[in-house]
Write a sequence for this structure.
């Protein structure tokens, strides 16, 4: 039988009450305005690192996706299509997290290369989790995204990554009421996205259309998660980071 310390329960309930203040009219309005601005601004942040060769690479990727779409249909390799879709989706989540996270770094091509090089293992983990369908379990995806943001704010050692997942779990736990609402919102967005992608796959260049849909829908989800992460880190820093002794 698990017995919770009374002080922990009191702190947990108090934290839930504080987190629910987000839904007060003025707080919610401010949060949505900041989230909307982050969604609009991210496309400029993503486009800046694209040099002339980067744009050629983007064009090559589009052509490759068109070819793969039609090859998959001809050869009936629909399991390959599912793997490509899952990999693209989580790659976009990873990249948009890097683009939208608060950072003093200049977000140029070097910035993205550096973080991909340091945290590629987390991208692989996300893709495998997506293939395994574990994200259908409520809050697992939110936990992973919070953990990813914590990891990006660390040096990237093994201990840092483990600590990031611990912090991600704590963030979900201590803000559970807000995470319930967030989960419902994300589920609704993904429901719409799923049917748009399913429709797009029925036509020429379906994977390309899916990528375009991901580029539009993924930043909405990342903006919500990132801005909640920023809010929770600022208001609950003692939960996630060692505090200096008085």
């Amino acid at each position: 039988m698990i017995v919770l310390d009374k002080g922990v329960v009191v702190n947990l309930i108090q934290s839930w009450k504080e987190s629910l203040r987000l839904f007060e009219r003025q707080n919610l309005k401010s949060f949505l305005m900041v989230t909307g601005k982050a969604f609009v601004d991210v496309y400029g942040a993503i486009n800046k690192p694209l040099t002339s060769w980067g744009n050629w690479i983007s064009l090559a990727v589009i052509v490759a996706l068109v070819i793969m779409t039609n090859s998959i249909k001809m050869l009936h390799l629909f399991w390959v299509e599912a793997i490509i879709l899952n990999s693209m989706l989580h790659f976009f989540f990873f990249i948009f997290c890097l683009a939208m996270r608060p950072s003093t770094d200049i977000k140029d091509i070097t910035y993205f290369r550096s973080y991909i090089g340091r945290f590629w293992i987390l991208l692989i983990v996300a893709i495998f989790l997506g293939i395994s369908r574990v994200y259908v379990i409520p809050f697992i995806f939110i936990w992973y995204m919070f953990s990813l943001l914590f990891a990006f704010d660390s040096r990237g050692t093994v201990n840092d990554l483990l600590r990031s997942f611990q912090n991600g779990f704590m963030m979900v736990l201590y803000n559970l009421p807000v995470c319930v609402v967030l989960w419902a919102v994300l589920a609704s967005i993904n429901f719409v996205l799923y049917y748009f992608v399913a429709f797009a796959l029925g036509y020429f260049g379906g994977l390309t259309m899916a990528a375009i849909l991901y580029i539009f829908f993924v930043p909405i989800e990342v903006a919500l998660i990132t801005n909640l992460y920023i809010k929770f880190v600022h208001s609950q820093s003692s939960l996630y980071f060692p505090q200096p002794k008085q």
Notes: The chain has ten helices and no strands. The chain has a mean pLDDT of 82. Residues 28 and 136 are 27 Å apart (CA to CA). Residues 18-237 form one domain.
